[in-house]
Amino acid sequence: RERRAAQQLEREGRAPPSDSRNGGGAGWDEAPPDTNAALRVLAVYEQGSRIAFACYNEESNEIIFEDARSSSGTDTERVVGAVLAETQPNLILVSNRVIANAPLLECLTTMPVGEEGRSTAMRRGDGNAEAKSADEQQQQQHTTGESIPYQLLKSSAFEPRQCKSVILHKLRVMTLMSRAMSGHHPEDFSHSQALSGHYASTQAPSNYHSLASVIDFESPTLVRALGALLTYLRQTAFRLEEGFTVTINNIRRCPASESFLRLEAASFRTLRIFATDHHPLVANNNVKGRSYNQSKEGFSLYTLLDRTKSKAGRERLRQWMTQPLRDAAKIRQRHTAIDLFLHPECHPAVSLVLERLSDVVSMDAILMRMQRCSTQPNDFLVLIRMLDAAYAIVSTLSGDLREKAYMLDREAGFNGMADDAGGEGELNKELYPSVAYIDDLLRRCHVPVTRDLREKMIAVIDVEITSETKDHVIINWGYHDELDRAKETFETLDETLSEVGRQVLQKHQELISLKVVGFLISIDKRQHNHDEATNTFPSVPDDFEFVFTQVKDTEAMVVSNLEEEILEVESELRSTFSALSDLDCILSLAGCAADLNFVKPEIAAEGEGAIQIENGRHPLQELIVDFIPNDTQMDSDRRMLVVTGPNFSGKSCYARQVGVLVYMLHLGSFLPCDSARISLFDQILVGFADVESCAVPQSTFQRDLTAIAGIMRKATPKTLALIDEFGKGTAPASGIAVMVSAIQQLCKKKCRAVVTTHFLEMFSLGLLEDGKGSVKAVQMSVFVPESEDDDAVPLFKLEDGVASSSAGLVVARLAGLNKKVVNRADGIIQALRSGRQVKPLPESLNCNSPFQPGVKSAIRLFLAVDGWTGANDEEIELLDELVHVM
């Protein structure tokens, strides 16, 4: 704080006050090189496909964070560029992981060039962006692209437990604290004051409750990045604070992923996009040396849509599902491709493509081994099969499929081009969308490059012999003349040496065998001297001496040259097989649409915020039960759907169904319905009951409150919120009050929301009005028979209006609850409705009481008889009757 005050005084032209303790110093030990520049430090942490950022801006005294997925280098560069343009850091804090990733480090330490930074400043409301002079803009353009200094932090700064502890105990956000304390009233503490007899000090709300509505503590990358940033700030800018506490004005998310639909971990779980099934004996791990750590993908939307033929396709589909699109043009392109492949005339060509897609594998491991000079012979064989498959697929795409696409576009009315175009040449993408998709796919496949590389590899490698030997790569005969001569010499080496041996044995009959050394020829000195005997030996050609080494070296040189040629076209190869992976995903979505009766949705205008679904179905539930479809109508006049109805009537399933169908639209898939017209959203937020854990210091109601608080803080007019039975963990009056206030606040934010509730009093007491304030009440209908002998039947059909009751007793009967308990509950309900006092159960109905009339009569009779040994038959029969009645 002293340093910031001194900087403010310097900007105003006044000298900072002297400090007598350090001889007139500024009040800090180590000042940054440029004291006029506000500190903007950015912490980065990468783990797998996720990368997290946390930036502190000293000028605004706020923290900006982002947690994104980066499936490729292009995605990483885009996310990093957006974060750097938004935060404009002057110091980067990195871990050893980032240091080891040279491309990522280079991207982080280079300020992005272009108009992105200027547009970001204007988006933040920087009015000086337009008022800058030409010289200042030129100077800014010159400085843009300069290197940003970075600092390596210790591994302990990114330790998960320490980072979470620092966030919870050493971070204070003033906006969150003011919101939390603004609702307190002196009357709220009157009860505790009356109990204690004096005014007790009010305890500040838990830091976890307020931060959990902003920060996703389930994201380890975000927790580590934010924790490392706070650790650095505690040692530098906030080291003079009491307890080294980092106090900031605000904390917010950086809008770096505007091209994808945002879903948090809770949204993925609620919509069941992915699911992990652990081994049933996972609790018995390490028992008698056994391990049950295996897990697999459970029943989820991913397993439903995954019909890919290649491993690369499965990985790409998972990437698609973690990053749903927000670009309407890209979504429509996927719809066009699915529509094309579903046409009956394209089925033969699609079958050929599906057969060859199984040969497409991931290129990353092969290219990495080539870069490290540790390539295996099987890598070349796999690459040749992949190139063969790519060549066959490209031939099918450029031939039959493109011709069919051209004809279908013309039949569909896209006939703005001349008839003599014949499907060749440049076509208008809007007039010929199917042809444009095929052409874009062929362009990404780099047909000339892959064709030349395929021919080169086939000319160099003998595939048949290499696949048999499996220990080294065999070069084709005729490719390298010098290698062919060396191989020919090596193959005739046995015959040459055998002939030499026969000539030697004719003159020298004695051979001596020595271990390790081999065979020696014994010469009789009495008959031959050494020089004469040596000169009589037949000579071996000079090229025989190192023929084996020559063959191996030449083969290694040829393989090395081939690896260099492959690495020269690495980007083209990655692009080709990335396009084939996308094609595999499109065909998988097309197969699901054909088998499960999905239809092509229509994308409504983004500002319209419409969700119009006719006979929508939940794609997972309809595989398990006889599903009853329901309609959904949401627009600017019906932004809030409040769903009421009994338990077990399908309210929660309906809310999930709306979320899943909106998600599938952003995925580019067809939808399980009769027709759909949906706008694009920026995020899907959920407030569903989650699994409780002792690791989370929150009660059931507190978790609901945290979820609602997060929805209200993050919601925008383009947000879809799903809230399920909020407030059931507290008193009905408190739950109703908070629920009504939250609905009214969400209506002001103009977001779309589906809310399920049992609080019918919201409408009966007039707190909410159906059809007013963009609130629409709907109910799940249940058939309740007049006779008590018949069971109620849930119809699972959505209707307008508010449910008359939650039908708890009906559901209790369906659950098999004891009839006496249900009847007693019915009596209590009737008494409460009529305002009568609930009477206790009479003693005669308590079967366990020893004071029932029958028991008392039996006891009196038993005590009245002096001795039962001599009792008469009448007394014995009477006692038997009384005991039988008991």
UniProtKB/TrEMBL annotation:
Biased segments, Basic and acidic residues type: 116-135
GO MF annotation, one: ATP binding
InterPro entries to which the protein is assigned, alphabetical: DNA_mismatch_repair_MutS_C, DNA_mismatch_repair_MutS_core, DNA_mismatch_repair_MutS_sf, MutS, P-loop_NTPase
Compositionally biased tracts (Polar residues): 136-145
Cellular component terms (Gene Ontology): nucleus
GO biological process: chiasma assembly; mismatch repair
Keyword Cell membrane attached: no
UniProt domain DNA mismatch repair proteins mutS family: residue ranges: 719-735
Annotated segments matching region Disordered: 1-33, 116-145
Pfam families, sorted: MutS_III (PF05192), MutS_V (PF00488)
Keywords, alphabetical: ATP-binding, DNA-binding, Nucleotide-binding
PANTHER family linked: DNA MISMATCH REPAIR PROTEIN MUTS FAMILY MEMBER, MUTS PROTEIN HOMOLOG 5
Family according to the record: Belongs to the DNA mismatch repair MutS family.
UniProt protein name: DNA mismatch repair proteins mutS family domain-containing protein
Organism: Thalassiosira oceanica
